[in-house]
Amino acid sequence: MSDTAVAEDHHYTATGLPTWKVGFWTFLGSECLFFASLISTYMVYKGASTTGPFPADVLNIPLTSVSTFVLLMSSLAMVLALDGVRRGDKRLASFWLAMVIVLGGTFLGFQVYEFTHFVHEGLTISGNVFGSSFFVLTGFHGAHVTVGVIWMTVLFIMSLRGKLTPAEALKVEIAGLYWHFVDIVWIVIFTLIYLLQ
Amino acid sequence: MSAHNNGIWSWITTVDHKRIGVMYFVTALVFFVIAGVEALVIRIQLWRPENDFISAETYSQMFTMHGTTMIFLVAMPMAVAFFNFIVPLQIGARDVAFPRLNALSYWTFLFGGIFLNSSFLFGAAPNTSWVAYANLTSSQFSPGHNVDFWLLGLSILGISSIMGGVNFITTIINLRAPGMKLMRMPLFTWMTLVTSFILVTALPVLAVALILLAFDRFFGANFYQPMAGGDPILWQHLFWIFGHPEVYILILPSFGVISDVIPTFSRKPLFGYPIVVYAGIMIGFLGWGVWSHHMFTTGLGPIADAFFVASTMIIAIPTGVKICNWIATMWGGQIRFTTAMLYCIGLLAIFTLGGLSGIMHASAPIDLQQHDTHFVVAHFHYVVAGGVMMGLFAGLYYWFPKVTGRFMDERLGKINFWTYFVGFNLTFFPMHISGIYGMPRRTWTYAAELNIALPNMLSTIGAFIFALSALILVYTIIKSAISGEPAGPNPWNAATLEWSIPSPPPHYNFAEIPTVRSREPLWREEERREIEAVTLKVPDVEPVMPNSSYMPILLAFGVALTWGLVMTGKWWAPVIGLSYVGVCILMWAFEDPFARKGA
Question: What is the pTM of this model?
Answer without folding.
Answer: 0.95
